[in-house]
Sequence to fold (71 residues):
Amino acid sequence: MEHPPIFVRIEQYKDLVKTIADIERRTKDAERLLAELRELKAEEDARIAAWDASLGNVSKRSAELRKILGA
Fold:
């Protein structure tokens, strides 16, 4: 099945090319920002895990001291 030729004015074609280029640029920007957000989230998750481990150690030591002191 053949498609008939499509005629587009030069101005519309240029506008379309600019719009597509803009969409591609914005998509790349969004991908870059998403990568940065993923990196920040990974750092945040690592810090939270470290805080959780530290808090667990403090709780464990506190319980051991309480046991030693008979409190």
